[in-house]
Amino acid sequence: MSRILEPIKNVGFIGLGNMGSRMANNLLKAGYKMTVHDVDTNVMKKYSDMGVSTKQTPFGVAEASDVVITMLPSSSHVLNVYNGPYGLLQGGNLLRPRLLIDSSTIDPQTSRKLSASVSNCTLKEKKENWESPVMLDAPVSGGVVAAEAGSLTFMVGGSEDAYLAAKSLLLSMGKNTIFCGGPGNGSVAKICNNLAMAVSMLGVSEALALGQSLGITASTLTKIFNSSSARCWSSDSYNPVPGVMQGVPSSRNYSGGFASKLMAKDLKLAVASAEEVEQKCPLTFLAQHIYTEICKDGHETEDFSSVFRHYYSGKSEHD
């Protein structure tokens, strides 16, 4: 039977960092009653001052919410919020929230294990056609800018009826939702998307740096790419060469984008997943090595397109 999640009265949000705070703010704008938690007490005070209910633990958020959304840095953080002391599942087999949505970028194996744990729980208050709690993995694409604008894309894994029930909630924070299949498949989609993005950026950066070394300008080469077979997002929407395109991280010294340390983390997840299923992924391994290297060289907080300068030693267009 299809699950109905209307009306949603109380939404919990855990993880109010660069992404999470903007997602939570859009839920507030949409009129949801919010209860939030973050390890940063300054962030908690900010939301408390705004009149938003704050709780000292994830379990406290769960006890006040019909739906709980988590947006956290890594698998270990997600596991701690779910299974740790005062975690979402601290209450044993009984859960207040009907739906738990994790928008963190984590490995598919963790998503699937947590989904199974949640499905084995019982609702404290059973609804007519919602028998047991459900988890969706719903990582996002679009970064901080899209989170601010409410234009994220959600890649969702889990049961399809739970996805349909959660869709309006997700669209309060984004403009696209894509159902990816069963539990963990949202996480699979995210790490595969970021793998392709990383390899694409490396290929474009390598080609542009080589072109510069051989005497052609990056602007000219970019025009050629964008009107021929090399055209891709890394060349036409997120060009890595300072001076070629405005409004992208390369135009502001690689600040304000998707940090290289986050790309290195996501590639590590892709490498681990490839090893688990014994899939040949040589470009994944090389990409992880390159991004790990530039992070070790002190560029971990710069946008991942900075690989053009810090790995390939490419030049700015105006140099």
From TrEMBL:
Enzyme class per UniProt: oxidoreductase
Major place of residence: mitochondrion
InterPro entries attached to this UniProt entry: 3-OH-isobutyrate_DH-rel_CS, 6-PGluconate_DH-like_C_sf, 6PGD_dom2, 6PGDH_NADP-bd, HIBADH, HIBADH-like_NADP-bd, HIBADH-related, NAD(P)-bd_dom_sf
Top-level division of the source organism's lineage: Eukaryota
Keyword set includes Mitochondrion: yes
Enzyme active site: 190
Record domain 3-hydroxyisobutyrate dehydrogenase-like NAD-binding: where: 184-310
Keywords noted in UniProt: Branched-chain amino acid catabolism, Mitochondrion, NAD, Oxidoreductase, Transit peptide
GO molecular-function term, one example from the UniProt record: NADP binding
Reaction equations catalysed: 3-hydroxy-2-methylpropanoate + NAD(+) = 2-methyl-3-oxopropanoate + NADH + H(+)
GO annotations of cellular component type: mitochondrion
Subcellular localization: Mitochondrion
Gene Ontology annotations of biological process type: L-valine catabolic process
Family designation: Belongs to the HIBADH-related family. 3-hydroxyisobutyrate dehydrogenase subfamily.
Protein name listed in UniProt: 3-hydroxyisobutyrate dehydrogenase
Taxonomic placement: Eukaryota, Viridiplantae, Streptophyta, Embryophyta, Tracheophyta
